[in-house]
Each structure stands twice: as structure tokens, then as C-alpha cells.
Amino acid sequence: MAKPSLSNSAIKEQIVERLRKIQPDSSRQWGRMTVNQMICHLCDSFRVTMGIKPWKTSRISITPIPLPRRFVKWLALDLSIPWARGVKTRPEVDAERGGTTPTELDQDKAELCALLDRFTRQPRDFEWQPHPMFGAMSDADWMRWGYLHMDHHLRQFGA
Asked: Is position 2 within any domain?
């Protein structure tokens, strides 16, 4: 059975429906982000992967990890297990440390939907930027990552 991915239009629509359920009073299940910060975090994550928003350094600063990158990428993208909670957020995608400041939730959600559409559009009108933990990835890897990242944070707020 195929793993969920944003390349599947039905899976993408399920993600959008879950996003619509997010409200200002959605309760955080873990972590520190507010619901508005989470939406901006997802927006910024798409922006940096598509090269819309630069990384803080002149060259990509790969996040140091104690295991081989291919193994960590395999764990994160290929196994069907929930992502770990409490992984430190990079400043570029953290609303409290250099990421986008939240505005009004519905406006930020609309921006996220627009970025999601561009992220999944074929043909692409951008070049993938290296992932800070996994490095260069294929289109299929990015579509799987996009699904897993959104799923992780939507579950964080009960959607």
C-alpha cells in the first residue's frame, strides 16, 4: 500500500479539510507553539523548501544529527510511525525566533493553502532547497515530507 503523500490529490484534500477544522481555540496536545504560530511555521517551512524565504546563513546550515542522514531520512519518511515530539524548531521557521509573525488565523490559513498548492503544483516553478536534516531530496520525498509535516502539526492541535 502506498504511503500517504501530497502527490495524491485525495490525501492533499484530506489535509486541507483537517486544516479547515483548526480554530483559534484548538487545544495544543504538545509543544509550545500556539495554533497561529503552528500555521505560520508550516507556511515558513514551505517557503524555505521552495526558496521563497532564505535560510539564516549564506549557505544552508545543516542541522547536526548524531546518526547517518540516510538512516534518519528513512526513519522519518519511510517508516509509518508518528514523528517525535519536541524536536527543536529552526529559527527561520519559528515565529518566536525569526519566522513569520502570525496575523489573523483565517488569513494565515489561506496563505498556507496557497503555499501548499504551489508546493504540489506540476510542473514546479521553483527549485527544491536542501532539507536541513536530510539534504537534497526527490520530488517524491518532498511530497511525503510535506504530508508528514502537516499531519504532525495538525495532530498537535487535534485535527
From this structure: no
Residue 25: inside a domain: no
Give the position of cell 504530508.
Answer: 147
Output the CA angle 50-112-51, nearest 5 degrees: 15
Q: Does residue 4 belong to any structural domain of this protein?
A: no
| Domain tally, the chain | 1
| Rounded-to-integer distance, Cα 131 and Cα 49, Å | 7
Report the predicted TM-score, pTM, of the whole model to 2 decimal places: 0.89
Q: What is the DSSP string of 72-99?
A: HHHHHHTS-SPPPS-PPPPGGG-TTTTS
Domain containing 71: what range?
A: 9-20+31-56+65-156
Tell me the residue type at 90.
R
User: Over 60: is that where the pLDDT of 4 sits?
Assistant: yes
